Amino acid sequence: MTDGVREAMDVTLRGCDELIPQGDWAKKLSRSEATGAPLRIKLGLDPTAPDIHIGHTVVLNKMRQLQDLGHQVIFLIGDFTSLIGDPSGRNNTRPPLTPEQIKANAETYYRQASLVLDPERTEIRYNSEWSEPLGAAGMIQLAAKYTVARMMERNDFHDRFHANTPISVHEFLYPLMQGYDSVALKSDLELGGTDQKFNLLMGRHLQTEYGQEPQCILTMPLLEGLDGVDKMSKSKNNYIGITEPANTMFAKVLSISDELMWRWYTLLSFESLSAIEKLKVSVSEGRNPKEVKVALAKEITARFHNAAAADAAEQDFINRSKGGVPDELPEVALTGAPMGIGALLKAAGLAASSSEGNRLIDGGGVRVDSVVISDKGLKLEAGVYVVQVGKRKFARVSLA
């Protein structure tokens, strides 16, 4: 193994859960180095939602690392497989999306992924290119290459079957179609989350069935969200969207625990492992972990915005932590003066209800023009007020 191949293996293995089979990937890397032919590295994402969060970027970061080694990365948008619905991790049948929903979501996916990948060196494909022309006859031939017994070994299907939970026949088609993507693209390596292992292995099986050299598979961990418990998910509201404002993104990264910070460094930072280890040593020797977390927050914010926005977000956070007011505030125009403070908080979108607003006042978390409000019966006359709830929520309210 040459130094170049050894370096490529180190890059590949950083933060990964499994590389299967590791020896075959080393052989592919050696062949690529000897011939100068880049390897084809595939990542498929179904456009099931309009936005990508930073949990999705764990695999995108790995793609970028391999892209920077000179290999050809393929960003595959599963516009056809989205019509089926991925059964991975599901305890019931996933409602399929409409073609209109898929089209709308797909339009944003590649633009957002390009914040991580180099768009000039990325091949973008849609699996409808080869899935739709396959037709009924081709689908039957494809389905004949895998057995029901093997399909039922999959945990999702096995558990649902024994729980008498319905399994639709079309769900069996999903792993077959994802595997066929690897055949169509002649993939050397496919990436995915740990929940995608069955689908990724299907690609290896089908490539062998079609006379191709089987791809290797690389699974990456599912990133824990802001709570440090559940995987990052919009439904759990523990996510950071990659198109969120810089100030919000920066503050959310700073909100994670010191323990979770190190996992995020490994999976999200572009710092070398040796550099991260030095940071760990510095913290163990007494450095404030918040300083290290600030560096991570600035790196992530700069990646999806720019360095100036990251610097401004840091200063904004400092101002807020000192009770200062940000330079830019949402403008809210209300009528109905005089208005009770609880009703105003609800109308301005700073509290879900008037009763929640009153609870926030009881907790000392509401300020008007930098003055802490303690009177829940306060009525505000017509005028312009800077209203603050907690450390992050602000609005400039014009009340008439």
From TrEMBL:
It holds the Pfam family tRNA-synt_1b. Keywords: Aminoacyl-tRNA synthetase, ATP-binding, Cytoplasm, Ligase, Nucleotide-binding, Protein biosynthesis, RNA-binding. One of its GO terms (molecular function) is ATP binding. Its EC number is 6.1.1.1. It is found in: Cytoplasm. GO terms for biological process: tyrosyl-tRNA aminoacylation. Catalyzes the attachment of tyrosine to tRNA(Tyr) in a two-step reaction: tyrosine is first activated by ATP to form Tyr-AMP and then transferred to the acceptor end of tRNA(Tyr). Belongs to the class-I aminoacyl-tRNA synthetase family. TyrS type 2 subfamily. This is Tyrosine--tRNA ligase. It comes from Hydrogenophaga crassostreae.
